[in-house]
Amino acid sequence: MSSPQSASGFTPTGTIASPVDRRRVVFATVVGTTVEWYDFFIYATAVGLVFGQLFFAPLGADSVLIAFATVGISFLFRPLGAFLAGHFGDKYGRKVVLMWTLILMGAATALIGLLPTYEAIGIAAPILLVLLRILQGLSAGGEWGGAVLMAVEHAPKTRRGAFGASPQIGVPLGLLLASGVMAVMAMIAPGDAFLEWGWRVPFLLSIVLIFIGWYVRRRVEESPVFAELAERREKAHMPIVQLLKKHLLLVVIAAFVFAGNNAVGYMTTGGYIQNYSTNPEGPLALERGPVLWAVAGSAVTWLLSTLAAGFISDRIGRRTTYIIGWILQLVGVFTLFPLVNTGEIGLMFLGLAILTIGLGFTYGPQAALYSELFPASIRFSGVSISYALGAILGGAFAPFIATWLVQQTGSTMSVTWYLAGMTVLGLVATLLLRDRSGIPLGPDHEAEQSVSPIYGASRA
Predict the structure, then answer these.
(1) Which of 82, 296, 448, 456 registers the highest number of CB atoms within 10 A of its CB?
(2) pTM (2 decimals)?
């Protein structure tokens, strides 16, 4: 006997009405998040290569350090984006929020590509750059939660890890696209031409990508969980207040889980390795193009391990997959700089590839893990705010911290210990959480979802 369907076309268990709808959701989340993160990472890549010279030149030796700080500033506005997206996403739906975050990110990115440099308009240039980066941060803060819930809440309960990996692979795909486009432009416009106009092309390309993402996303149905909440008129009136009142500790622990991954990931996505290895005054002074291709190659290994981890978490659980991932990530942390510091592009790629295997295993299951932690009526707020706080604690200033540590100690070993500490933090946070793989996600099971998944907390 077939399961009854709601008026929205979805069954109460949260499965999708047809395989066509299922493929459309997966495709839309991959395309949409890839476009969003391409926009976000193209900035970080440009910071590591040209922004210090073009927008912060009067600061002299500190220009790159300050440029990396602007990467972190955007993270400080992610919680605001997450608060707004969580509030409106829990009240008005996941889809509408995703459309607006896509438009905001694309517009800010394209405007950066048109921005005059410090030489042209003086202090107004870095001020406008920071303002546009803040808009990117607001968008990124709201994007992830909506994409994750659209994927996971559409999925059969035995395939949430696989479905949830679809928005997750948008991150390495965004890095691959950003690094690849920058590498191509470094070939087309080498040397001074890259500084004059070559770096702008990847930013302006966002105009095309935004239309592609918008077209794909508008064809996707609303999340079945939200559709059922709307039909029952059970949407939370003040979801943020309820979340912080009842689940604050859970938000903090979930944020630490992501922080352990994000700090390490931002060695490449934040542009640190790109700057460290290509700095003409640094110990390696490598050419831009080969380094960018090495980073792009590591994005492929990151993508594959992220996808694999999502599928594996459906078999062995989110918690166990994460624990394996933290061990692999720790290995990657301790092998990264010894291989990068050889100055050989092949060995640099090997170091990045090893690192990204662990990164994939601590990122692929995150969508499913987060979605299974929070009750349906405040889920958008829960996953978005946990993610945004984790991004601040982890990746916000990781490139800045790494640059400062090397300046102070003269050695990349200090960076290794910093990244190892963040990895251990993520492992400890994971160990504090019970595995809730397969827990029902619909509004019928709000009471079960509200039971704390934290070890040692009351389960009543």
Answers:
(1) 82
(2) 0.81
